[in-house]
Amino acid sequence: EVQFVESGGGLVQAGGSLRLSCAASGFTFDDAAIGWFRQAPGKEREGVSCISSSDGSTYYADSVKGRFTISSDNAKNTVYLQMNELKPEDTAVYYCAADTALRKGQLCRWGYKYLNVWGQGTLVTVSS
């Protein structure tokens, strides 16, 4: 059974930092595209950043480039999202998900819309 457990969210002031973690299980972690996605109140879910666990290559949405960094620890089946220079518009519930057939860019841009398995998410609130 595929599972994702996200953690690390919280309340932070604008300009601050948070590090999110996602523990994954139930699939071949070191041969997958794994990503972070977010959903703000009243908005659709969107792709934030994705990583290819096999080679560590990454994809970032334009809105977070230069501020967020995704990484993975294949030995721990865990993916991280370091978020710096946080802005109020980053406020959302953050989720992780994965797919073993799509590439990282495909997963982040549109593939996530077809996924059925999601974790409970972790809430990030950035105050101005």
Structural key phrases:
128 residues; mainly beta; 6-stranded mixed sheet; 10 strands; 47% strand; globular
Fold and architecture overview:
The chain has about 130 residues and is mostly beta strands. Helices cover about 5% and strands about 45% of the residues. The protein contains one helix and ten strands, in the order E-E-E-E-E-E-E-E-E-H-E. It has one helix at about 105-110, and strands at about 5, 10-15, 20-25, 35-40, 45-50, 60, 70-75, 80-85, 90-100, 120-125. The strands form two sheets. A six-stranded mixed beta sheet has the order 2-10-9-4-5-6. It has a four-stranded antiparallel beta sheet with strand order 1-3-8-7, with no helix packed on it. It is globular and about 40 Å long.
Q: Which secondary structure elements does this structure contain, and how are they paired or packed?
A:
Elements: E1 3-7, E2 10-13, E3 18-25, E4 33-39, E5 46-52, E6 58-60, E7 68-73, E8 78-83, E9 92-99, H1 104-109, E10 122-127
Parallel strand pairs: 2-10
Antiparallel strand pairs: 1-3, 3-8, 4-5, 4-9, 5-6, 7-8, 9-10
